């Protein structure tokens, strides 16, 4: 039954988009590329949905240990999956820092948590807009002045699709919000992460990527998609870049013998506002989405697992889905591509030594 709904919804979306595109005034090459991406996304998405359905119940009961004394920083903790991550971390007695664009919405999240009667933990909210390198630097300075140790960094904030847009720094907005902004944030906070880690209890960097990385590639000649913008290709590129970076950073930390573990993950296909404005939301009936997608609470589980589970202590550098270590795509292992992207990102940001200044 679920298989049938997934196939039907996917087919309708591909058809409708193909028809719409044929009537648009885009060049035929662009139309073919968009349709190709649409088909591949539907295949990858359907596979991920099935995986979630098969594995989801097991992980609703995933064991998440307490985190008393730990400080966790999450980007985008005031909406979507992030809210549920914050709530569960506070329940586990963690001190949570939320970086988000609207500080009062972050504070509202904390009020709601206290109103639910959860007395443990704490939440502090600071302004962060990943679409502004200046904002990221101010945010990091603020955090560094208040905290000497950060045990968990959760790079969660993200943006999907949408019309072509460049940030104030001149980068395609998904590339900067999902990848480059987190690259800079991780660079700036690495000293505090290193300070918090211990030999047998490493600090952790958790990158919320996506199964969409499977269809991604890195286009160094046109990283901002100025020549031909395909929103889904740009999203996939940004999510692949996160995983490449995770893997590279893992090697770097190992070389330095630094007590920092890194994980990247796919949270599942989750019913959040991330899909607002997509054809999926416009065409698929609400009941089908509720039946097939994870709730934000379920989407938070793998992130919490990566943040706190003892079982992962010796598994830095892995990619998780449904609390399960999974192989990412072949490209993610390419050390050539990892190195190239790492050097390229450093040069874009004017960073000489990563994590040191
Ligand atoms: N939902 C899914 O099915 C799915 C699947 C795979 C991966 N993911 C990934 O999971 C993560 C969370 O997604 P979600 O589903 O919770 O999406 P969501 O409900 O749309 O929330 C997105 C979050 O990102 C923040 N954000 C966006 N742009 C930002 C910016 N410029 N600066 C700071 N924060 C910004 C938002 O904060 P504001 O409140 O300031 O807007 C919000 O907290 C994303 O990385 C997404 O790619 C989601
Ligand atoms: C910020 O969040 C608060 C609380 O959720 C909300 O009332 C307000 O409208 C938001 N402001 C903006 C500019 O979105
Ligand atoms: C996570 O990805 C960001 C880019 O999105 C990168 O800057 C950061 O170093 C990565 N961290 C890890 C541990 O992979
Ligand atoms: C991780 O590896 C160390 C060193 O080999 C070992 O002492 C420790 O018990 C391992 N931890 C877990 C949770 O497996
Ligand atoms: C923490 C936990 O229980 N994770 C489980 C999620 O589902 C997979 C697949 O069944 C299990 O192998 C994991 O152990």
TrEMBL record:
Segments crossing the lipid bilayer: 6-23
SUPFAM superfamilies: NAD(P)-binding Rossmann-fold domains
Domain of life assignment: Eukaryota
Keyword Repeat found: no
Pfam families the record matches: adh_short (PF00106)
InterPro entries: NAD(P)-bd_dom_sf, SDR_fam
GO molecular function, one term: oxidoreductase activity
Keywords: Membrane, Oxidoreductase, Transmembrane, Transmembrane helix
Protein name per the record: Uncharacterized protein
Native organism: Ignelater luminosus (Cucubano)
